[in-house]
Amino acid sequence: MSTHSPVSDRPTAGVPGPLHARPGRTPGAPDAERILVDVAAGDTLSRAGVVAQLRPHPEVRVLDEEDRAIAAVLVLVADQVDDDVRDRVRRTSRNTVTRTLLVVTSIEEGHLVSAVESGVRGIVRRADASPDRLIHAIRAVAQGGGHLPGDLLGQLLASVGTVQRDLLGPRGLYFARLTDREQDVLRLLAEGDDTSEVAQKLSCSQRTVKHILTGLTQRLNLRNRTQAVAYALRNGLI
């Protein structure tokens, strides 16, 4: 999850965007390149420690409390992922454009999934939270990417696989929203086959092919098989 994507929310001319500081605030790097950061913690000492690590770095500007609504990244410091942390992240994701980077003392496997579901975009363990690592993670989150330690990324991928295999798969549900059979049908239709040719290649009846297409179009709220093929191609499902 340590991927980076291009910054898309650049400020318009003369108007500072959420990633950037307003002109004339803090010396260092050009204001247009500074990432606006809000730091929050359950205790004053923890917040002060993170702020002290970030302030010398010209890549970011730590906001005062009255300016936190314009932050690009919320650095949220916590001992663990509990209900208060999840609620704070959900409120931030729902009410602002701010993305959350969690600095946490420890995190259990089950709590990792719930943190991501709540809207956390990156996680750094407190023991690993050096200034350079924090800046790297803040930059990744601000640019729309994410940041996870390697072992947590492995845990997250394993959890997704377990949910698919043990919970969704037996019920005929898939994260990709297409079953293997649906993918086969749409792939052949995309190659130009008609219903009878699809049925022949998949060793089933034309009625079965039509039933698969009807269920697919109804579930995805699509009008016809042409839309279904276009949907699958557009979303990289076939």
Give a structural overview.
The chain has 238 residues and is α/β, with parallel strands linked by helices. It folds into two domains: 31-163, Rossmann fold, CATH 3.40.50.2300; 176-234, Winged helix-like DNA-binding domain superfamily/Winged helix DNA-binding domain (Arc Repressor Mutant, subunit A, Orthogonal Bundle), CATH 1.10.10. Strands 2-1-3-4-5 form a five-stranded parallel β-sheet, sandwiched between helices. Strand 4, helix 3 (109-118) and strand 5 (120-125) form a beta-alpha-beta unit. Residues 1-28 have low confidence and may be disordered. The chain is built from nine helices and five strands, in the order E-H-E-E-H-E-H-E-H-H-H-H-H-H. Helix content is 45%, strand content 12%.
